[in-house]
Amino acid sequence: MLVAEWILEVIHWGSALVGLFAFVHALLQRADAYSAADRKTKPIWMLITGGATLALVLFQIEGPGFIFWVPAMAAALVYIVDVRPKLIEVQRGHRNW
Prior knowledge:
Keywords: Membrane, Transmembrane, Transmembrane helix. The protein has about 100 residues and is an all-alpha fold.
């Protein structure tokens, strides 16, 4: 296998792990924390991150699957960099939940 193929394989499975992390984090959060953080509901984020994880596993970064890989990666990253910090902030601010 060429070095470029190894790099693409690492990116493929690394992105799948990013999606899985987003899905598991969404799964483990309290449902009321999403509304308190003024974000979409927990079932919606479970669907978004679960679908993103599935797409990241099924589609490679190279080839025609790239058209599905990019939005899936974007969805997982939006959860990680936007929703996750807000959920953590809300849950730390309200310790009496």
